[in-house]
Amino acid sequence: MISKMERAVNYVVLTLMALIVLFPIGTFVTSALSPDRSGKPVGIADFQWDNFATAWRDAGFSRAMAVSMIIAVCVVAGQVLLALLGGYAFGVLGVVGDRVLFPIVLLGMMISLEAIIVPLYYQFRTLGLTNTLPGIILIHLGMGVPFGVFWMRAAFRALPRSAFESAEMDGAGPLRMLRSMAAPMARPAIYTLILLSFMWTWNDYFLSLVFLHGENQTATVALGVFQGKYVTQINLMAAGGLIVAAPVLVLYVAFQRKFISGMLAGAIKE
């Protein structure tokens, strides 16, 4: 049993840690709402909510956010689907040659993007895929699927083998077991993969800067251009940063609950 003293110490430590984490976030938010160009904090009554509207309009976030959302949704859907199939094949089915094929898949996690960006650009330019959404989506899938397969393979291997053996004896096929058993039981890992994939794709700047321009620029690139124009207006730059970060924050809050419920619902004991 935890004594009252230990519980009080735990609450004090957790409160201090929360304050340390929330302080810079609070400072950033107050800077975004400040009427002062330098982002000087002001009282609640003096908050200037028009900073967000100004940043949205001047940075052209309406088009850029739509482009980023299309890319992120397509990448997340493709990566989760391929990761489920690949992780299930390596983790449950035990495909022929997996001891050779799986390390080859993992090579995609070990290759630095900076090392292949130049030949990748010229290859995609030859194929006519530069400054196109299918091109950037394909690159994100190529860079993200190896991690997804690795992640889901580990999740599937942690599931009890007896459940799959029982289902197989009852006549369930591989796809039926994946849809009805493996995927629901590995739901927490799937939610985490969705969140990580969306966050990595949404926050990408380097690939978008190299392969996209004009009307196809993403939210992060639009934010960089906007900050270059308003480098002395800290309040507008902070407002633009919050706008770009909002989708990731919303998704994190939503999937936090689903992660916990999915972990409890999918729990199983051997």
UniProtKB/TrEMBL annotation:
<protein>
    <submittedName>
        <fullName>Sugar ABC transporter permease</fullName>
    </submittedName>
</protein>
<dbReference type="InterPro" id="IPR000515">
    <property type="entry name" value="MetI-like"/>
</dbReference>
<keyword id="KW-1003">Cell membrane</keyword>
<keyword id="KW-0813">Transport</keyword>
<feature type="transmembrane region" description="Helical">
    <location>
        <begin position="100"/>
        <end position="121"/>
    </location>
</feature>
<keyword id="KW-1133">Transmembrane helix</keyword>
<dbReference type="Pfam" id="PF00528">
    <property type="entry name" value="BPD_transp_1"/>
</dbReference>
<feature type="transmembrane region" description="Helical">
    <location>
        <begin position="133"/>
        <end position="152"/>
    </location>
</feature>
<dbReference type="InterPro" id="IPR035906">
    <property type="entry name" value="MetI-like_sf"/>
</dbReference>
<feature type="transmembrane region" description="Helical">
    <location>
        <begin position="66"/>
        <end position="93"/>
    </location>
</feature>
<comment type="similarity">
    <text>Belongs to the binding-protein-dependent transport system permease family.</text>
</comment>
<feature type="transmembrane region" description="Helical">
    <location>
        <begin position="234"/>
        <end position="255"/>
    </location>
</feature>
<keyword id="KW-0472">Membrane</keyword>
<feature type="transmembrane region" description="Helical">
    <location>
        <begin position="12"/>
        <end position="33"/>
    </location>
</feature>
<feature type="transmembrane region" description="Helical">
    <location>
        <begin position="185"/>
        <end position="202"/>
    </location>
</feature>
<feature type="domain" description="ABC transmembrane type-1">
    <location>
        <begin position="65"/>
        <end position="255"/>
    </location>
</feature>
<keyword id="KW-0812">Transmembrane</keyword>
